[in-house]
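TL;DR need structure tokens for one chain.
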Amino acid sequence: MMTVLAPIFRGEWAPYGAALSCASPPPSAVPLSELIASPALLRQALAAHGRQCGSDAMRPVASAWSRHYLDALLPPVVVAATLLRHRFELAPARLLVDLDAAGAVQRFYLPDQGRPYANAELPGRYRQLLDAHLAPLFGALAALSGVPLKILWGNAARYIDSVLSHAAPLEPRLGHPGLVASDRHALLDNPLSAASEPNPLYTRRRRATLNVDGATVTHTLHRQCCLVYLLPGREFCECCPLDPRYSRST
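>> reply
TL;DR here they are.
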């Protein structure tokens, strides 16, 4: 684990910060830029993940693969960017990824421990993650598998939302009150980016009702369906916008 993350990711939270390392990478690790640029390498990873999922349907397999990827990458990166004001090198040519037998990322190998952000504005803190890292990765996944980009960005939005929600209680002791709410609004709730371009993380969330034992329960649904319900033995995620149980509301 990166030294700067150790005070945050302790005890039961330690596994969520363990995916970033600047140790010497194993021989099996490859530059992320190669994985992005090589359809054969990426197809191999997705095929291995498909075997783990019991499916060769490329769209849901690619979405499921992205969810494992984001689950490893986003907790330490988002916590560092929002709460710690710390920057990790995330450009695809500068980091390596090590995949397990199921094709999923085990660890990201970075060139160093990173450094504090010189620019504390949100675009400067998140541009490398969103524009330099996720955008080309999602583009390669979409081109190879046919999974819509909006689903991949919806997966990212779901994890960012979850990480920031869990990070909010840590704000008082770090002396940055209001940062989580501000970043969350800018990243997820604003239809335009800081550059006044469409924000790929934004989708208007709707609320829907569900009848449970005669009572009406209202849920805020996920921004996008992740398609994982299409895999064998899987069902709709809780609050999936495609779940036919929900009646359309606001």
